[in-house]
Design brief:
Strand order of the largest sheet: 1-2
Order of helices and strands: EEEEH
Distance between the termini: 31 Å
Shape: flat
Oligomer: single chain
Largest sheet: 2 strands, antiparallel
Structural class: alpha+beta
Number of helices: 1
Amino acid sequence: MEPGLYFHENDLTLPPEFRGMGVRLEDNVLITPTGSEVISGALPIDAAGIEAWMSRAQK
């Protein structure tokens, strides 16, 4: 599952800092005969969570 937003670099309706940018959130899902499990559920998906995770990973 990969919802995402992609902004074309030539889209003049966007502020310049967003042109050519893309953002995609991905979940890894394990599908079995008895159901499913989101195996990436413990990972952060918001900016603050990702920044905190990256900060810890760089130490």
